[in-house]
Amino acid sequence: SLTVNKDGFEVNARGHPVPVAPFVHSYRMITYDTDRKIFTHMWSPSGYWRKHFPKRVALIEKHKARLNGLGRGWSKINQSSPWMYDTVAGHWRRLKTKSKTPAAGHGAHLIYLPPQKKFFFLGKGGTHMYDPAKNDWAALKPTGPRPPQPIDAASCYDPKRQRVYMAMGSYPKRKIEGVENRVWAYDIVKNTWIDLKAKGKLPPRPRKVSGSGITRMHYDSANDVIVFFSFGADISGSLETQGVYVYSP
């Protein structure tokens, strides 16, 4: 059974936070802190668990005023670090922050940046950085054109240029002509978004909602290119655009 600790988190008998169905459409919100050896996750919760866990429903109703970081209106407080699984200690960690947690939305992006020892985050609430040393969030407020469809998009980190690359998703649905995708980059040093205006045969925009489940972007350090994998149907429903695409920065 779970109880609520002083910071408003649900914990088990050993006092460790316990995640319950928080990772819905969280494909790009899982990253690894190579310095602290911790898997780190942002959350995007759903309510499908409710009929299976009536005791938790009762717990939330009882402690709603002091619960923290549940989302969906289940908690009054929203000041939380990402979920962190400590691979050395073998349990979850979660910390109360000074600042409010930025809104995520389904299919947002969390990427660990080793040089800064911080986490880049882009979601429904904008572009942010989480600093584990300070245990707090900071809004970056970058210049330049932010990707119009950051939700359910594909992304990766380029350590050579200190950039985060992002290809457009298809959710929420907007009227955008054509199937071809577009590629943006966030310059970490300059704190700006760049529309790369990539040329050639561009990868497709993925089918809506499941976009980040069927597309992948990776930085290939050996060849210094961005590799885009398209595994499913594109926004038009066609499978003919499936394949592997390569972008040279």
UniProtKB/TrEMBL annotation:
InterPro entries: Gal_Oxase/kelch_b-propeller (IPR011043), Kelch-typ_b-propeller (IPR015915). Coiled coil: none annotated. This is Galactose oxidase-like Early set domain-containing protein. It comes from marine sediment metagenome.
